[in-house]
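User:
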Amino acid sequence: MSSVRADLPEAEQKQLDAENALKEKAEQDALPYRWRQTLQDLTITIPVPRGTKSRDLLVDIRQRSIKVGLKGQEMILQGDFPHEVKVDESTWTLDDNKEVSLSLEKVNQQSWWPHVVTCAPKIDTTKITPENSKLSDLDGETRAMVEKMMFDNQQKQMGKPTSDERKKQEMLEKFKLQHPEMDFSNVKMG
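Assistant: Predicted structure:
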């Protein structure tokens, strides 16, 4: 829902961003629940009347939808998820008999959700600032990519070749050994 417009001066774009942020905050504040997310999961808190017992609640978490409310009353939260959740890894608790806390684990742990349910107002996911994560939190492929980027950055700062540049140099050296008859004096690596 980013509304960056290349044709607007920077001051006007900042004003538009501020207005959109206020509108988004008002929409989120109007919801009967609060929510936050990481790439891995969503945490939803829903206030309920003080003294509520778990037997008074209807909580139905499915892979693609959710229902939460007090039995015999209109649902507080109901709708389809924008993406799937892992039902077996998702939980809920009743805290201090006044708040339902849900922890939903995302199936796709590589994307931000614009809303909890598709009928709710969207947030601008381009404005999300993720928490710093530890390398150990990342899957193997992502971790390897991040480690390579970190190594390459260190190499650049020291004026040394990056891993890709080193690979090219090694390939050239190997090729030189295989073809001693060729003149490599004018070869430039870039």
